[in-house]
Specification:
Shape: globular
Helix content: 55-70%
Strand order of the largest sheet: 1-2
Mean pLDDT: 85
Strand content: 5-15%
Distance between the termini: 45 Å
């Protein structure tokens, strides 16, 4: 077998009707590998930085009250995943939970001073690095790739919905 061409992987071996899908998978695999090595300058994980940044941004919007369910919805993650992250960041001193004074079932999540500093510095640093990479593409290509990624996600979801509907049909 010949060495892989840049942007191609073993999926590129399909030279028939599946060539486009193979090229897409090759680029997705490459992007996943590159993204996996694109770490923040700080020792914090990207997912922790994203959560702190999301809490900071949501706190600035609306009434400033952030709940785990709001985080799960905005970040498109499960409640157990958000709860685990919140617990870990709370143990590390970045966030605190505050119960609602009138409804004990509601718990708000807020950044501590350490958390505010970490969110400000790490989000700015990491997103700045991402912006520098996007600047190399230019605004037109950046907007285009973002739009195409959204359209591809929509198309995949549509195919999944069609397949689910077909499988639910009575025989």
């Amino acid at each position: 077998m010949q060495p892989e061409e840049p942007g191609r992987c073993h999926y590129g071996l399909f030279k028939t009707e599946f060539e486009q899908a193979g090229r897409l998978f090759g680029q997705m695999d490459r992007l996943r590998r590159v993204w996996g090595g694109f770490h923040p300058a700080s020792p914090m994980k990207r997912s922790d930085i994203a959560l702190l940044g999301t809490i900071a941004e949501l706190s600035r919007q609306g009434d400033g009250r952030v709940t785990a369910s709001l985080l799960a919805k905005v970040m498109r993650q499960s409640m157990p995943a958000i709860s685990q992250k919140v617990r870990l960041l709370e143990d590390a001193g970045y966030i605190r939970r505050q119960g609602d004074k009138t409804d004990r079932r509601i718990v708000y999540i807020e950044l501590t001073e350490i958390g505010k500093d970490a969110a400000k510095n790490n989000v700015r640093d990491f997103l700045g690095r991402v912006e520098r990479a996007l600047d190399k593409l230019g605004p037109e290509k950046t907007d285009g790739i973002i739009a195409l990624m959204g359209e591809l996600s929509d198309a995949i979801e549509e195919v999944q919905a069609e397949e689910n509907a077909e499988n639910d049909l009575p025989l």
